[in-house]
Write a structure and sequence with these properties.
Blueprint (H helix, E strand, L loop, with lengths): L1 E3 L3 E3 L4 H9 L5 E2 L14 H18 L5 E11 L2 E3 L5 H11 L3 E12 L4 E13 L4 H9 L20 E5 L2 H5 L3 H10 L3 E3 L2
Parallel strand pairs: 2-3, 2-4
Antiparallel strand pairs: 1-9, 4-5, 4-6, 6-7, 7-8
Helix pairs in contact: 3-4
Length: about 200
């Protein structure tokens, strides 16, 4: 459906982001960025997601100046606290327990860097997600499935973890890892993408 106007590079190893771009019919290569992903003291989740996305895209664009590089970073936040990927099953269970019955934010920062075209743009999209409440054995069973272990906030809305979500307000694809509507709009507006026809 779409074609890019210059080589497209995804500066991420995320299989979910790769799948979104593939479904759009885009040709792209994957060059994961090797960067420090530490949060700065007092940095807001919104600013952190934007900074990470921009840092990833700019790092890859340094050695690929003729390409359009897409960087993205998704964070889960509650009361200003960032919930990253759990380092253990115990941490995953603690995250899910904290998020139960509450509304949290999923923020995906995305950056588009095309050095040859003097494009360096960063934005972010926020989706409000409300969890239902479940007994601990159910949460433990979900953690035991292994799905939470490579996901911010310890859940995947596109997988088994969808049962945790009572409602959401905003972009669903954003919760999975890429705000597809905002990204396509940005690429079209900057003439980096065109519809095939």
């Amino acid at each position: 459906m779409f074609t890019t106007c210059c080589p497209l590079i995804l500066a991420s190893a995320s299989p979910r982001r790769r799948d979104f771009l593939t479904r759009l019919g885009l040709e792209f290569s994957i060059v994961p960025a090797a960067i420090d992903e530490s949060c700065n003291p007092a940095e807001s989740p919104w600013n952190f997601a934007r900074r990470m996305a921009a840092t990833k895209a700019r790092a890859v664009a340094e050695t690929n100046p003729d390409a359009c590089v897409l960087g993205a970073d998704t964070v889960v936040a509650l009361d200003g606290r960032i919930f990253g990927k759990p380092q253990s099953q115990e941490e995953a269970l603690a995250m899910l327990t904290t998020l139960q019955g509450r509304t949290h934010q999923v923020i995906t920062g995305f950056a588009i860097v095309a050095r040859a075209r003097n494009i360096d743009e960063v934005d972010a999209v926020t989706t409000e997600v409300t969890f239902g409440t479940f007994a601990e054995p159910i949460l433990q069973a979900y953690v035991a499935s292994g799905e939470p272990m490579d996901k911010a906030g310890a859940y995947g809305i596109q997988g088994i973890g969808g049962f945790l979500v009572d409602s959401l307000s905003g972009s669903c694809s954003n919760v999975v890892g890429l705000p597809v509507h905002a990204l396509v709009r940005a690429l079209l507006d900057r003439a980096l993408l065109r519809a095939e026809g």
